[in-house]
Amino acid sequence: MAVASPGTVMNNVEAVRSTLYEALKDDERTLILGEDVGARGNVFLITKGFIEEFGPERIIDTPLAEASIVGIAIGMAMEGLRPIAEIQFADFIYPAFNQIVGEAAKTRYRSNGDYTCPLVIRTPYGGGVRGALSHSVSIEALFYHVPGLKIVAPSFPADMKGLLNAAIDDPDPVLFLEHKKTYRLVKGEVPDGHYTIPLGKADVKHPGDALTVVSYGLYVHQAIEAAKRLAAEGMSVEVIDLRSIRPMDRTTILASVRKTHKLLIIHEDNKFGGIGAEISAMVAEEALFELDAPIRRLCGPDVPAMGYALPLEEEFMISTDRMAEAMREMVRF
Amino acid sequence: MAKAMPGPALDRRGLSDEQLRWMLRNMLMQRTLDNRGFQLNRQGKIPFATGSEGHEGIHAGAAVAFERGKDILVSYYRDIGLCIGIGMEPMQVLLSMFARAADISGGRQFPNHYSNHALGLLSISSIIAAHCPHAVGAAYAMKLRREAGRAVLCTFGDGATSEGEWHESINFAAVHKLPIVFLCENNEWAISTPREHQMAIADVIDKAPGYGLPGVKVDGSDPIATYAVMKEAMDRARSGGGPTLVEAKCYRFLAHTTDDDDRTYRTKEEIERHRHLDPVPRFEKVLVEQGVMTADEVAAMKKSVLAEVNDVTDRAEALPYPAPEELYKHVYEGSHEPWL
Amino acid sequence: MATTITMPQLGETVTEGTVAQWLKKPGDAIEKYEAFVEVSTDKVNAEVPSPVSGTLREIICKEGETVATGAPIAIIDEIGAAPAPEPPAAVPAAAAAPVVTPSSYGAPGAGPGVNGSSGLPGRNGNGAAAGGAVLRGVSPAVRRLAREHDVDVSRIRGTGTNGRVTANDVVAAASGGPAAAAAAAILSAPAPAAAPAAAPAAAAVPAPSGTSTYASPVPGTLVPLTQARKIIAKRMVESLETAPHAWTMVEVDVSNVWAWRAKEKDRFLRDKGYALTLLPFFIYATVQSLKKHPLLNSRYTDDGIAIAREINIGIAIGLDSNLMVPVIRDADALGIGGLAVAAGKIIERARTGKLSADELSGGTFTVNNTGANGSVLSKPIINGGQAAIVTMEAVVKRPVVIGDAIAIRSMMNVCLSLDHRVLDGTSANAFLGDLKKRLEAMGPSGEL
Q1: Counts of helices then strands in chain B (DSSP H, E)
Q2: What is the ipTM of this complex?
Q3: How far is CA A64 from the centre of its chain?
Q4: N or C, which end of chain C is more exposed by having fewer CB within 10 Å?
């Protein structure tokens, strides 16, 4: 994205924080509701200072009840507000499944457009932070299947801001996934001023021509690191940051596969039924005769979660070495 | 013919003759539409209908307490009478039954799952109690915007008060003192589950103190009493007094839906034992006894209601189904395609 | 002993910390678990307990200074304590999958699909499709490109894993490669101005044609050079330029061994699934002769004639426009039956393009079945890095003199090209004579 305006270097926490701040300032219909978002300022300090500036009516410390965090937000959205609901950890989202999938996703559809649901649900997801069974899961596969929902998972600060603004503007419900390990780990330049990045657009973060790697979240950063190592070895790998999971960018993926003829999908979520399966199916359907190698998925193991003990977490998480090795094998195939 | 002598003085709670007549007509319209649904189903013309026989008093009373253009109704699928009572046209009921393209949901929703943004009727969901948090959110919006004189009316049956989302909604409304009235239309049955299997208490309002909001019980087969209770609760909400849980007792005379064979869980004798709770003949009798209407006027009203229902039935039936390509619209604001 | 204290990680996502306040100064005594410094991060403020008892020797990070987690902030002199126990050994990192370097004859066996380099069961995502087996046939991209460019895939030497023909290989084959294009450019360039009678353009060699191939060459065209053809050309020139070639031959009466073969062939095919030709008998005899004449199993180096330790027999195979020499390693460990199966297997793999680098290298002596094409005399070129190459010519029924009578016998010429730096007539014919004797001694009573 070519932006002429000056920018500021910041991490992902600050990117989200500053974007939410501007949204609250610009539009009095905007409000934030969730657990510990007020006085505590969110457990990652993303809403720090907000309740002091915007007041407890717009920064709501809800009771501990995820279903109604989302359900109440739906009612607010249907009545003309712009609520941004927060689920404290993606692992806690399951009680709200009914409201997200059964209600928010269907509001426009079942009323034939009479009502809409412009709602954002933000939640931190992902592992590698010793979060164990209930602070590490990826949830996108549970929701990306649902027509009526939109899902984004950016992991660069500039993308965080642009996509969060777009999500807030979006007239339909958007699940905004923030990989918690990237909160402070990833820093980048973020253009000043308000801008949006359209949903459904992936981004080539590292161009190449011998292999297409599609990823999102924490693993994009590792994939780029691995691609750089391979570049030093004379192998040219293209890394695509999906950024948007529903809708997903077919054009960028197919253009890349037509160039490289090989596709490697890397995601942290469990392999079986993960979004890599959908990408594989789409590419096989639309570009079979471009493929010079079987599509490969390097994904989380099919176990409920990573364990608390370090070896268990490391076994679940995919190291940059493993990614580089998979890339090498595919380039050479 | 001279009017009948008025009976013992009726406490009309401030309702005028016109309003009382309106209420009876609403009740008759509701009953006729209800029965029409079952008739059409038994004729094989529509696959499905729900019945609200027994709820007419609640709906008429609550509808008069509702202020059109200001209040919002977040309702459930047994509230035909309440929905037409706040201004929805009977034609909408038939379009919904026949699933015609002209139905507000475009034939997508089950019958009786109405939506009407212009009237302040939130799109109805089939999922029990899923709408309660929505009602709370809408009430929050009113409070945030300092909209005095507005309230949300959230209705549901006794079964809904077991759902987690119902408890979460009551709780939040009480914590934030929101402008909302929760109206439980307790007809003692959740499909085949009688009240004593649904809760350990006799009255739904016994749940209210636990959350810190007032609970008021009323005889739902008495539309005037229901109106009085509802008016007080709605006024309290509109003036910043916070939420109320109202429990209107009534009886469900028909099966849950046309797919439910209630003979499997209750007897005809039991239904007949509750016949005295049937609000329609009761109210007819009261109005005639009070001299508000004559028996002939009541008969004429019934005829007129029937004629109107027959008319909308024929007109709705003649309209087309939605085209198949309509399936793909309104998934999102733009295209439904997940791959861009 | 001095213990360096580092900035702790106070929080799941924290990457740095600030020293808010030192609670001790250099020279102060500190007890284990006693708070000695206050640290703040953007998530929490905390007092940090000391991991050891001792004296604070040095403060590295000043108050108000921010450092990354893990950076040193102070040094404590421990009193009398045993060195701190090593942290529990981390699970050894998974062994890296073997590094695969493609050679021009195809990559070694470790292709994609080596499942779970750590051997763990659930480690998924490592396998390519179908249990990691190398593709049978060609990929969809190769199929399409071959069709679009009218290229015969079976003629292409693949540069992918296990010799797989890749999409790039097809494209390279179709364009003839840069060398062919350059050659065409030179040939079709106009003659220098000084030359009389400038060659008319009509005499210029046309550019490489995609439709004129080795299999179906079109007169007046250039057949594009495949990778394989270029390599063959290079190797042949190298061999002739390096080794001075000499040549000799003997005639062998193979009537008995032929009869033996005829007797066993049906049963062999049925039991082993491979054909029993004259080749394994020949290789067996050759190997025995090489054992007796090791000079034939060697190669010339400037430091000496390197006598090979193993006997690895290369079998020259011509496949349309390709010449391959797969190798049966340790051929002396196999009997005639074993050699028949080994030869059958590698010939099959050669035909389907599945030979590994191991199977294409390490040969010490080469056998060439030129007789299969009908030849009765051949003058083969020695396989680079060897001292000689032997041929089996066609088996022909001829009248020969036995004693004083004339008999019809099955006769086969055996020819030998030799590196005259290593061998000469004496050594070569000693070997050939021995080989002839062995072959003529084989008969139906022998053991396979």
Answers
A1: 12, 7
A2: 0.90
A3: 24
A4: N
- Tracing tokens 């209600």 back to the chain, one arrives at A103
Residue of C330, C332, C424, C434 with catalytic role = C424
pLDDT tens per residue across span C2-59: 899 988 877 666 788 899 999 999 999 998 888 899 988 766 677 888 888 899 999 9
Please list, in sequence order, all residues whose beta carbon lies within 8 angstroms of the beta carbon of residue C126, skipping any fewer than 6 positions away. A298, A326, C113, C114, C115, C116, C117
The four Cα atoms A71, A72, A75, A76 give a dihedral, to 10 degrees, of -140
Hey, which chains touch B, using 3+ CB pairs under 8 Å? A
Residue C18 β-bridge partners: C40, C66
- A-chain residues near C94 (CB < 8 A): 322
φ/ψ (deg, to 5) at B41: -65, -45
Q: C-alpha dihedral over C234, C237, C240, C242, to 10 degrees?
A: -70
Report DSSP state, residue A98: I
Instruction: Enumerate the H helices of chain B as residue ranges.
Output: 17-42, 56-65, 80-85, 90-98, 132-144, 164-175, 195-198, 208-211, 223-238, 268-273, 279-289, 295-318
Check if the beta carbon of residue A233 is closer than 8 Å to that of residue B323: no
- Asked if B154 and B135 touch (Cβ cutoff 8 Å), the reply is yes
- List the structure tokens of B33: 């539409």
- CB of C167 within 8 Å of a chain A CB? The answer is yes
With a CB-CB cutoff of 8 Å, which residues 229-268 of chain A face chain C?
Answer: 261
For chain B, 340 residues long, give each residue's pLDDT as a single digit of tens: 455 555 567 899 999 999 999 999 999 999 999 999 989 988 889 988 888 999 999 999 999 999 999 999 999 999 999 999 999 999 999 999 999 999 999 999 999 999 999 999 999 999 999 999 999 999 999 999 999 999 999 999 999 999 999 999 999 999 999 999 999 999 988 888 888 899 999 999 999 999 999 999 999 999 999 999 999 999 999 999 999 999 999 998 888 887 777 888 888 898 898 888 899 999 999 999 999 999 999 999 999 999 999 999 999 999 999 999 999 999 999 999 999 9
Maximum Cα interatomic distance, chain C, rounded to a whole number of Å:
118
The CATH architecture annotation of domain C2-215 reads: Beta Barrel (2.40)
Taking the C-alpha atoms of residue C419 and residue C421, their distance in angstroms, rounded to an integer, is 5
Strand partners, A8: A190
pLDDT, mean of residues C306-314? 93
Yes or no: domain C243-441 corresponds to CATH 3.30.559.10 = yes
Residues from chain A contacting residue B331 (CB–CB below 8 Å): 108-109, 147-148
State the Cα angle at C425 between C419 and C429, rounded to 5°.
105
pLDDT in tens, B200-234: 999 999 999 999 999 999 999 999 999 999 999 99
Antiparallel, parallel or unpaired: β C29-30 and C54-59: antiparallel
Does C243-441 match C2-215 at the fold level? no
C107 CB within 8 Å of a chain A CB: yes
Q: In chain A, what is the greatest distance between 2 CA atoms, to the nearest angstrom?
A: 59
Record the tokens describing residue A273, joined without a space: 């039924």
On whether the CB atoms of residues A306 and A312 are closer than 8 A, the answer is yes
> Residue type at B118?
A
Provide the residue ranges of all domains of chain C, joining segments of one domain with +: 2-215, 243-441
From chain C, the residues in CB contact with A271 under 8 A are 124-125
Nearest partner of A124 among A134, A115, A109, A116, judged by Cα: A134
Question: Which among C142, C173, C140, C171 has a CA at the least distance from the CA of C156?
Answer: C173
Distance CA B246, CA B226 (A): 9
| Residues across chain A | 333
CB atoms within 10 A of CB C234: 11
Classify A61 as helix, strand or coil. strand
Determine if the pTM surpasses 0.80.
no
Q: Which two tokens stand for residue A103?
A: 């209600």
